Each structure stands twice: as C-alpha cells, then as structure tokens.
Amino acid sequence: MILRILSENALRMTLVAALLAALALSTGARASAGGYRLDRALIDPGSQASLQAGARTFVNYCLNCHGAQFMRYNRLQDIGLTDKQIKDNLLFTADKVGETMKVAMRTADGKAWFGVAPPDLSVIARARGADWLYTYLRTFYRDPKTATGWNNPVFPNAAMPHALWTLQGERDLERVTIKDQGHETTKYLWRTIRAGTQSTLEYDRTVLDLVNFLVYVGEPAAQARKRIGIYVLFALGILFVFAYALKREFWKDVH
Q1: Cα dihedral 80, 85, 91, 92 in deg (nearest 10)
Q2: Angle, helices 222-251/200-218, rounded to nearest 10 degrees
Q3: How large is the C-alpha radius of gyration of the chain?
Q4: 209 touches 54 (CB < 8 A)
C-alpha cells in the first residue's frame, strides 16, 4: 500500500515537472517568435572582472536615470572591490558605501522628460531575463518619429533613449517582409549611420558585462546559494545512505 502511494506521488511529480518544462519552452518560443529574435547572453556570474566592468558601465551610463534601490554599494565588495575603489570610482549618487544605489533624478522630473518615470533596475534581470536585456541594449536605432529620436524592435516605442549610443554609434533599421509559400517572415537589415567609440565586438562585450552585473544585482547571493545548495545535497546524500540502512534494519524481520 505504501509503495503504491509512493509510486502515484512520483508519477504526479513527474507529470508536473513535464508540464512546467513544456510551459517554459512555450514561453521562450513566444518571447522570440512574437517580435525580434532574442540573442543568447552567455554571462559568467562567477567572473569578477566582468561584474566590475558591468558595475562601471551601470554607474556611468545607467545610474543617471535608473536606480537600483535594493542594492547597497558595499555589496560590491563581493565582486572584489574595496571600499576605497568604490568611493573613488563608483560612489557618485551617495555619500557612504553603506547607502543604496539610488538615482539622483527625481521621479517627477523623469516623468516630465520621458513621459514615464524610469524604472528601478534592482530586479529587471529577473523580470525580463538576461537574453532580453542583452538583445534590447544592442538593437537601438534612429527613429525621427519618436520623442527621443530612438526606437527598438525588442521594445517598440520605448520611452528610453539609447544611453550607450556614444559607444555603439548610430544605426538605422529596415524591415523586409519575405513571403514564402504563404508564410511571411520579417528580416531586419541594419545600417551604420555613425560609428561609435567601440567596435561591434567591444560593444557586445560591454553590454554582456552590464547584463551580467544586472543579473548579479537581482540576487547578489545567488552564487553563494548555489554553493551551499551543493553542500546540502551532498550532506542529504550521506544521510540517505544511513536512513536506508536503518530502514533495512527495521524491516529485515518483516515478511
């Protein structure tokens, strides 16, 4: 009877896992099929050099409008920075390293300038995903029809201008519709208007580091949590051996 109950529970758990996996796949498919195809962001959460570079880009280009109010400057010690390095290079909108990464711009000013207040980026990577951010920050193009003069196929008519345009340069986008056997597909053709200070590979690296940092900001303890999880699973595995041996000892005389 007990074995049958356990088997039924295991079957239910397997079915639930399969449904969740199918849902995840279908969600990913909608995210790329409904509009611009998302590029894979090959981030490295364990790379301190990448996280430090991303923090520098965030403070210099993003923190003018977007804050990260759930992140304290002193947490940057976890990515290899000292208090002196934080104070000398990254502490522009606060007085002490224990303060949060709040934006200097007032919410009312942001709404007046952009039509909507720039969102806080503390958990943007968890809400949007690394692939979305990586693709979005690399696909801005000039559009004279918008208020900011910029547009983006990943997030059409976004109120955000291209904050990193001096690095990437200015580009134009042309959409070409291709019909094949009754099916229509959209092809995106990019044309450089003015080159930026970085090459394409350099800019992709800059954005990748920035996205890596935003993922870290969303959960600074993620790497530690994963390491602890491995130790816990290892300990549970050892306890399982003893528990199984104890079970066999209790049940050895039961027929």
Answers
A1: -130
A2: 50
A3: 24
A4: yes
The Cβ of residue 63 has, within 10 Å, a number of other Cβ atoms equal to 21
The rounded average pLDDT for each run of 10 residues, N- to C-terminus, in the chain (255 residues) is 42 43 43 70 94 95 90 92 91 85 83 85 94 97 93 92 96 86 82 96 98 94 78 89 85 74
Q: 3-state DSSP call for residue 65?
A: coil
Q: Considering only CA atoms, which of 65, 64, 91 is closest in space to residue 76? A: 91
Q: Which residues contact 17 (CB under 8 A, 6 or more apart)?
A: none
β-pair partners for 179:
184
Distance of CA 229 to the CA centre of its chain: 22
Query: pTM for the whole thing?
Result: 0.77
Q: What's the token pair of residue 51?
A: 């996280």
DSSP state for residue 137 in the 8-state scheme: T
Alpha carbon separation from 63 to 91, 92, 163, 169 (Å, rounded): 11, 9, 10, 20
| CB neighbour list of residue 123: distance below 8 Å, 6 or more residues apart | 70, 218
Residues in the chain: 255
Q: Whole-angstrom Cα distance, residue 230 to residue 35?
A: 38
d(CA 60, CA 57): 5
CA atoms within 13 A on the CB side of 17: 6
Q: Write phi, then psi, for 193 (nearest 5 degrees).
A: -90, -45
Query: Which residue type is seen at 118?
Result: P
Q: Judge contact between 121 and 63, C-beta under 8 A.
A: no
As a whole number of angstroms, the distance between CA 120 and CA 218 comes to 11
CA–CA distance, 70 with 59 (Å, rounded to integer): 15
Closest by CA to 188, choosing from 153, 138, 231, is 153
